Amino acid sequence: MVEILYYLVAAFFEILGCYFFWIVFKDGKNLAYIGTGILSLIIFAFILTRVESEFAGRAYAAYGGIYIFSSLLWLIFVEKQSITKFDIIGVSFVILGACVIIFGFLKKLH
């Protein structure tokens, strides 16, 4: 399913872009990271336009669930933090919701 791949790649670039801003403003890293953050956010926005959807709002709603899932992966693999049972329960709900939206509009398109 190519849409889910687009969502995962978009989420990576959005989180990466925002993370660069985070490390500059929260961790005091060099301002040069901002340029990479901006580029990452541009790539994120472009990739999200590749999603097969008749309405941007529906694409963004579905993306929200994938973004939350991806954020928890970022927490584990990049920030080396543990997730809680509440993280798992919460992401289960949003992934279910995102899948309903994704499969619903894909079914309508085909």
TrEMBL record:
The chain crosses the membrane at residues 5-25, 31-48, 60-77, 89-106. Keywords: Cell membrane, Membrane, Transmembrane, Transmembrane helix. GO terms for cellular component: plasma membrane. PANTHER family: UPF0060 MEMBRANE PROTEIN YNFA. This is YnfA family protein. It comes from Campylobacter portucalensis.
